[in-house]
């Protein structure tokens, strides 16, 4: 879509923060092929181009088609310790190349497991990789990546809307690994499944709130503003994944602006999932920017959307009128609303202020 001469020039060549990114939607196709072959697991194709013709998006598709994509490649990764550790490590490498200095990647540990999970996902045979160990392996992969690539990586554990039975374990794992890289909890999946009928999520989010576990929720992406309302009022979400449809309810939108709720905006993703008007010049991000809302720019699922963070920044620049100042603002918003402990958050903010030329470096 962006076909002018600025295509390959990095827009906003300064440190970035990314808060909304799925580990299972950010795997290198080469790694999927490698583990498919190694483990004798059949994939729809045996070359990167072939695999991407199944996995990658070129034009908007619906949610059912989107969810089907994971079933093409997750069997090659799920249930394998080396694969889980390696995709976490490689994500740090990928993000370091994109100029990201801090990111939070989210995933459902249950969807990588083949033991202590019911039902066992992706038609795997029962094995011995539990959701608990998956979290441990991702933490390890991130820590190895951090050492090598000198950036910071943390994770958010996802509850899945269609599996409220898994949510209690999610909050337990958030607590267990809160000092080893897990910084928060998310709720992902089909937004039409509300929480009143799936009380497992409400119980888990209540426990997270009581225990000081940070909370974000996918809401108002494809679903209506009522899902956002439920996320904030019932689940006590501090951040909203996407949240585009919040603006359909002016009272709610005004209230969330006042509450300084953070919106994790994913421009290219929202185009391909049909979450917003296909005319990017009418994207809600423009309204968020004009109203000085608290939002950040993110990739969501770069494997499936065949993108890097540069693509989202280019779209914001080309179709939404974002300037250097707007990008700085979005990244500072991201740092302020990230789930790091206060002291680490201050350090991150200071790095941004210094590299953005907003404060003098402190020279002793
Ligand atoms: Zn997402």
TrEMBL record:
CDD domains given in the database record: ADA
Membrane topology: Peripheral membrane protein
GO MF assignments: adenosine deaminase activity; metal ion binding
PROSITE patterns: A_DEAMINASE
Gene3D superfamilies according to UniProt: Metal-dependent hydrolases (3.20.20.140)
Keyword terms of this UniProt record: Cell junction, Cell membrane, Cytoplasm, Cytoplasmic vesicle, Hydrolase, Lysosome, Membrane, Metal-binding, Nucleotide metabolism, Zinc
Enzyme Commission no: 3.5.4.4
Top class in the EC scheme: hydrolase
GO cellular component: anchoring junction; cytoplasmic vesicle lumen; cytosol; external side of plasma membrane; lysosome
Adenosine deaminase domain residues: 15-353
Gene Ontology biological process terms in this record: adenosine catabolic process; hypoxanthine salvage; inosine biosynthetic process; negative regulation of adenosine receptor signaling pathway; nucleotide metabolic process; purine ribonucleoside monophosphate biosynthetic process; T cell activation
Subcellular location as annotated: Cell junction; Cell membrane; Cytoplasmic vesicle lumen; Lysosome
Taxonomic superkingdom: Eukaryota
InterPro entries found in the cross-reference section: A/AMP_deam_AS (IPR006650), A_deaminase_dom (IPR001365), Ado/ade_deaminase (IPR006330), Metal_Hydrolase (IPR032466)
UniProt cofactor(s): Zn(2+)
Catalytic activity: 2'-deoxyadenosine + H2O + H(+) = 2'-deoxyinosine + NH4(+); adenosine + H2O + H(+) = inosine + NH4(+)
Annotated PANTHER family: ADENOSINE DEAMINASE
Family statement drawn from the similarity comment of this UniProt entry: Belongs to the metallo-dependent hydrolases superfamily. Adenosine and AMP deaminases family.
Name of the protein in its database record: Adenosine deaminase
Species name: Chiloscyllium punctatum (Brownbanded bambooshark)
Taxon lineage: Eukaryota, Metazoa, Chordata, Craniata, Vertebrata
